[in-house]
Amino acid sequence: MKPRISMLTLGVRDLERSIRFYETGLGLPRRESPPEVAFFPLNGSWLGLYGRESLADDAGVAPHGEGFAGIAIAHNVASEAEVDELLEQAIAAGAQLVKPAQKVFWGGYSGYFADPDGYLWEIAHNPLFWVGPRD
What we know:
The chain is α/β, with parallel strands linked by helices. The chain contains 3 helices and 7 strands; from the N terminus they run βαββαβαβββ. The chain has 2 domains: 1-60, 2,3-Dihydroxybiphenyl 1,2-Dioxygenase, domain 1 (Roll); 71-135, 2,3-Dihydroxybiphenyl 1,2-Dioxygenase, domain 1 (Roll). Strand 5 and strand 6 form a beta hairpin.
């Protein structure tokens, strides 16, 4: 079976602001793409940014909605110090701190930020279960 690559596409209110946040603020590598979309290759998946109205239109749903969307994106790192560093980097780039990094019930260490559109990102270190590539 061929490997499958997942793409997470976020519908954003201001595409240029979101591109700056992810590319410059968080340092994600951006692939060349048409001006109405942005792609960032991640480890084993992709992040796509697309206008909120256009993405809703593509899916055939209403573009408005507020509150918790029932999703959080997790980014796993190799140490507690990296959790702290990435949270600080996100805040400096314009994210809102939602939950400071702390020891958590499942045995790891994590914190949350919200990106410029309010999408929740959990930055986590899990010493019991590593989800990234093996070096």
